[in-house]
Each structure stands twice: as structure tokens, then as C-alpha cells.
Amino acid sequence: MNFKLKQPKSKKETLIMFYSNLPNGERFNYSTGEKIHPNLWDLNYQFPRHTRVKTEQVLVNSIKLQLERYKTAFMEFEARCKAIDEDFDKTSLKEYF
Predict the structure, then answer these.
(1) Quick one: which of 32, 38, 31, 71 has its CA closest to 56?
(2) Residue 23, Cα to own-chain centre: how many angstroms?
(3) What pTM value is reported for the model?
């Protein structure tokens, strides 16, 4: 599971997308609803970058926290599906999110 910018070359804020390749071969894409300026995004780590500007860092920290929530929700849902032998596919995952 990773994150990417919807428009990485944008000159203004762009949406952050959550994506993962599922075990059945499907690719799950989901908009987090979070927006960030590409200058504050680390393309290598696919996560917001640290900045020295306090107001920007407050925003970055808030976005990081929300993205971590998406990761946690994804892993919890995957574990639940495995535990009860339920389908773990993009349809059920999208409904969960």
C-alpha cells in the first residue's frame, strides 16, 4: 500500500491517492480527500516531507496522521477478512473505506 499525488506536476494543491495491489491481482485506488502542494510531497517515499516552515509542518503533520489512519484501516480490514475467511477485494474494501 502506498500513496501518490493525483497530479504530481501541479502548481497548486492536489489530491493524495491511496493505492494497493490486492492478493487477487486487483488494484485498489482511493482518494483520501487530503490535498497537499507537490513541493511538500516526497516522491521517493510517497509521503509528505519535513519542512522547516512551522505553518507548513503543522499541515504536513496533520496529513501524515490521516494517511497513517488509512494504512491502519487497510491492515485491520485485511486481517479481519482473513480471520473470518471473507473476500478481500476492491469492492469490499471500498465499501469499508
Answers:
(1) 38
(2) 18
(3) 0.89
CB 78 within 8 A of CB 89: no
Count of alpha carbons within 13 Å of 65, Cβ hemisphere only? 6
Cβ atoms of 73 and 96 within 8 Å: the answer is yes
Domain boundaries, the chain: 2-96
Tell me which residue of 36, 18, 15, 33 sits closest to 73, measured CA to CA: 18
- Calpha distance 16→62 (Å, rounded): 13
Please list, in sequence order, all residues whose beta carbon lies within 8 angstroms of the beta carbon of residue 49, skipping any fewer than 6 positions away: 40, 41, 42, 60
Residue 82 CB: number of other CB atoms within 10 A?
11
pLDDT tens column, 36-68: 999 999 999 999 999 999 999 999 999 999 999
The tens digit of pLDDT for each residue in 6-31 reads: 999 999 999 999 999 998 899 999 99
